[in-house]
Amino acid sequence: xxxxxxxxxxxxxxxxxxxxxxxxxxxxxxxxxxxxxxxxxxxxxxxxxxxxxxxxxxxxxxxxxxxxxxxxxxxxxxxxxxxxxxxxxxxxxxxxxxxxxxxxxxxxxxxxxxxxxxxxxxxxxxxxxxxxxxxxxxxxxxxxxxxxxxxxxxxxxxxxxxxxxxxxxxxxxxxxxxxxxxxxxxxxxxxxxxxxxxxxxxxxxxxxxxxxxxxxxxxxxxxxxxxxxxxxxxxxxxxxxxxxxxxx
Amino acid sequence: xxxxxxxxxxxxxxxxxxxxxxxxxxxxxxxxxxxxxxxxxxxxxxxxxxxxxxxxxxxxxxxxxxxxxxxxxxxxxxxx
Lengths: 248, 80
Description:
Distance between the termini of chain A: 34 Å
Strand content of chain B: under 5%
Helix content of chain B: 40-55%
Order of helices and strands of chain B: HHH
Oligomer: heterodimer
Number of helices of chain A: 9
Structural class of chain B: mainly alpha
Helix content of chain A: 40-55%
CATH architecture of chain A: 3-Layer(aba) Sandwich
Order of helices and strands of chain A: EHEHEHEHEHHEHHHE
Largest sheet of chain B: none
Strand content of chain A: 15-25%
Structural class of chain A: alpha/beta
CATH topology of chain A: Rossmann fold
Largest sheet of chain A: 7 strands, parallel
């Protein structure tokens, strides 16, 4: 990278976000490592980046709170300069069958997983426009295309990210800003580790590659989309799902 | 700030954001037809004006702002 650019990754204290932050740090980005409650996790990610001679800062950022977004982005900018790479990874789940799902659980997931991404894009895109450069990567899910029984809120938010991403890709394309989706399938994380073995076996049987993916496999894809090499890719959905959602 | 100073400041922001020559920035110049500015250019121009004059311009105030003269009006109304 000729210029050391500044990236921010939301939900980066563990899992896909943590692996992405570490990967971006190794690629030479200054990295704002976003977390909500797990400061220790974020600090460990920052330590790993610094250990590898990278540059990083932990920032508390609840994407459902615009004031939190403002404070976090301002602190990253004052440390590293304008944010031109945004990875919207923060996500929560509040599972349940739709007929029994509370409005509260519906709203919570939409607010964080979809509106949170919108708010981050709104906050970060002016600086990208000025820089005539930007990379926006929204982490969605194979369930956004496939649907997911018991996760109507989550799948709806993830499908919503597609429309958001493609609209932004059209709005900002003339300024050298790309916006893309990475859609992971089943990935080994703390979240999926809690699943019963029978579910894991069933899911693996549906994946053409016959296994769960790793967080690093998702992180390397995000890192590529953040790179100069991906300059001509925008509005795309890149699946990292072992073939689970192909054809959708 | 008097009107000629406001126009001069708008001219500086507009030439930078819209990539046009300073002498094209006159009060009667229409953003779309004369200055070839699209909606994103206008957003950038407004952002530039907000920064330059330390003002906030809500989206609804942009209705009917189609010329440089309108932009000068807008800036002056925010500063008064």
